[in-house]
What we know:
The complex is a heterodimer of chains A (237) and B (235).
Chain A: H1 4-20, H2 26-42, H3 47-54, H4 67-70, E1 75-79, E2 82-85, H5 86-124, H6 129-159, H7 168-199, H8 217-234
Antiparallel strand pairs in A: 1-2
Chain B: H1 16-39, H2 43-60, E1 64-66, E2 72-74, H3 78-85, H4 87-105, H5 113-137, H6 142-167, H7 173-205, H8 213-234
Antiparallel strand pairs in B: 1-2
Helix pairs in contact in B: 1-4, 1-5, 2-4, 3-4, 3-5, 3-6, 3-7, 4-5, 5-6, 5-8, 6-7, 6-8
Amino acid sequence: MKHPGLTLALTFTYLIWLGCLPVGQWERLAGFALLLWIGMLAAARNPLRLAARALGVTPFSVAALPLIFTVPGPAWTYLAGHPLSQPGCERFLTILLRAWLGAQAAWLAVSLLGRPRLLLALSQLGLPPLLLSIVTLMMRYLDVLHAELIRMNRARLARSAGDRPPSWWWRAVKIGQTAGCLLVRSLDRGDRVYLAMKSRGYDGRERRLSAPARPSAREWLLLMLAQLAMAMLCRPW
Amino acid sequence: MSLALALHIPDGFLAPNFCAAGWLLAAPALAWAAHAGAQSPDLERRVPTMGMLAAFTFVAQSLQFPVPGGTSAHLQGSALVALALGPAASLLVLTVVIAMQALLFGDGGLLAMGWNVVNMALVGAMGACSLGWLGQKLRLPAFAWAFVAAWISIELSTLATCLELAAAGASPLKISLAGMLPAQGLVGLGEGLATAAALGILRQRRQCSPLSWREAAPGWLVIGLLLVLLAGGLV
């Protein structure tokens, strides 16, 4: 899949089908995982690496942990005297696995597209021009501001030597002052960038050198086949 | 466990039709913000500023501050951007930031992004603007109202997240409230101090106009709605 818009569309539809999957259908969930990992292998990405990176979403799943106690149903096992309900455990595990697979799918899309083509994909999926301009500028200046912040942090650390650790509120205020300085510098830089753009003929519109390539029939076919496979796996009806 | 991740809902938690409801809530707000942006006479001048502030918010979120009790959390920046830019522009900036966090770092899901925008941009930023306006009306010192606005806006975002998780059947309301509100309240202390300090620097160096009732009104609507839903959910 080379076309940026279709790649992102495929990712979104994968997430939608995955979300439609009923709770506790482990074979179908495995089928979805298999589809994703085949896709990764076809795109020459290492499934193990992406799967390990996607484990980063698991801390949020703690929010769903109470389900294993609160969903009514037969007790599956006992933890320190508290019954763990079986439907609750199934629901929690389904949520955990869906979040894990969803994060892998999103990362596969980003790794396939890369930053510049991600912007193209967003515009092909109909992102409003105003938001697209903000995203484009943000991507361009992300690394610049990050480098600025690293310099500021280094300078602050160099200035604040002391023989005892400062209190948490003092540190929070200092972090805030760093953020404030960076905010002022970002606004100043925004003004300078605007003047530089204006002097080069900027009138508020984005322009492209050439129209992006249209998706080929093969890519449409691939998208449709993937939908068919996911629909067969999901079968919400 | 990182407390910071607790507000970005990943995919898989909420059913697709529930995610669609989040988008349906976020879309009109974004359309209003884009319309307000397009109406402003200096739109072409504001676009580079908004892009730069989106990059700023993204970068500022890598700043870690200590939380009383031993852990640390990252700056969220929604209250800071909202108090510096006003609700409409900050809604656009924060939406872009949330979208890019989901796309580039897997922080929050793609389908669940509608709800993440509602929680952090709509509730967090607009709530901060309303509380900031109230603080200005009451003639509180600038440090005090910025602190309170940022602190309460974090709690409002957390409240919205808990209500959504409860409505989606992913987490019971009372348990998630009891678990998340105090934890985020501690995080909010640091966030409030940092936001107030950052705004102090901004006000020293640049002209800042006070918040108007028109900017504060949508936030009061959102806060009122949240409290009604909370009362309905608890009873």
